[in-house]
Amino acid sequence: MEVVIQPGSAEMASLVADEIERLLAAKPDAVLGLATGSSPLAVYEELIRRHRAGRISFARARGFLLDEYVGLPAEHPEGYRNVIEREFAAHVDFADGAVQAPPGAVSSAELPDACAAYERAIAEAGGVDLQLLGIGSDGHIAFNEPGSSLASRTRIKTLTEQTRQDNARFFGGDIDSVPRHCVTQGLGTIMDARHLVLLATGSGKAEAIHQLVEGAVSAMWPATIMQHHPHATVLLDEAAGSRLQ
Ligand code: F6R
Description:
This protein is of the alpha/beta class. The chain has helices spanning 9-26, 41-52, 80-87, 111-124, 161-167, 187-191, 206-214, and strands at residues 2-5, 31-34, 62-65, 67-69, 99-100, 130-133, 155-158, 181-184, 195-200, 232-236. It is globular and about 45 Å long.
């Protein structure tokens, strides 16, 4: 695992955008794994900037989201399908239908088939070339909360109290408005991506980053599975890296 410490999110975003620009130049139909939350926002801004400058096209690329809340109305602004549209996809030239999200709005009877179909869609697209990731303060990646199977695939999960508290800021500070469940790619799904790129800023992530880089691989700190990935890059600011030895 490669750990890179940068002064701030602008520098981190520029490095990730360089990597994506190189990938798309070599493989215009590359498959991008897209994260939501605050961590990748500066990357999306930089990609939009480079797209507007004529440097990057997503016309043949595909995107797959990591996760989606369960139980939000389709038009809810914090539904991740809507977030990625607003923050990124609508500002570049993805083809219609090229960005997909896990099935957050199907009945529980239909869910297992819908999750299997999402896994199949990723595989049929050729697998994820570059997966963007944030990390939860409890060590989750996507919404694989502590205790998640290290081999898990796309499925429904219950969000921890900690994650709901952390994400209440997107719901006007009201934890009761944060959904209790999500559909998330599993750790096994994420590990199939060819390159993992995780971004973390701020001291609130320092313990999770310490565990990710220096802890034992354990389902209690789900991100630690990345230690077994052959090509994982972790980009940090000083605060997120402050607990590293
Ligand atoms: C979002 C996701 C989550 C976030 C994590 C960190 O799609 O999968 O794992 O990456 O909760 O969120 P931020 O970046 O908001 O601190």
